[in-house]
Design a protein that fits this description.
Layout (H helix, E strand, L loop, with lengths): L2 H21 L6 H27 L8 H30 L12 H45 L8
Helix pairs in contact: 1-2, 2-3, 3-4
Length: 159
């Protein structure tokens, strides 16, 4: 299990909590907003743990970077959607979504925003991986070229 991804999911959850607080209309006490951010971080941690656990169950023949990132992103998206739908159902059942502040329909833009952030974060993670891999290959090629030049007796920076 990749614990770095779990920690990243926690911080992504905190970031989503901040975005949800900023996107929410109306000001209130700092306590509920702080609890919202912390709960969002906890949900992110849960999503990260479930995602990494399910990804670790995949067969080794799927261990290609593109396949891993695609499946990991899909698992994260489905897990996040399930948790968010559960929270919407919980809000509807307790009446937290109804009343003077609005109804459960007000949750759907939040669910969409959270899922969009998860998709963007997974795509960004894959792009960073590709950029890092390309940079590593360029560095390996330059080191290989430098070692060939040293074997030939040329100075390393001679062109």
């Amino acid at each position: 299990m990749n614990f770095r991804n779990v920690v990243n999911s926690f911080f992504l959850g905190l970031g989503i909590g901040v975005v949800v607080v900023v996107a929410s209309a109306g000001a209130g006490d700092a306590g509920p907003w702080a609890l919202t951010v912390l709960a969002s971080g906890g949900i992110g941690l849960l999503v990260g743990l479930v995602t990494e656990w399910l990804t670790s169950l995949l067969p080794i023949r799927l261990a290609r970077p593109r396949t891993y990132f695609l499946l990991n992103g899909l698992v994260a998206l489905v897990t996040t959607a399930a948790i968010m739908l559960g929270l919407v159902g919980l809000a509807a059942g307790t009446g937290a979504g109804a009343g003077p502040q609005g109804d459960v329909r007000d949750w759907w833009p939040v669910v969409g925003l959270v899922l969009a952030i998860v998709v963007v974060a997974n795509v960004a993670d894959y792009l960073v991986f590709r950029w890092t891999r390309a940079r590593l290959r360029r560095m390996q090629a330059s080191l290989g070229q430098a070692s060939l030049e040293q074997e030939a007796g040329e100075p390393p920076d001679a062109d």
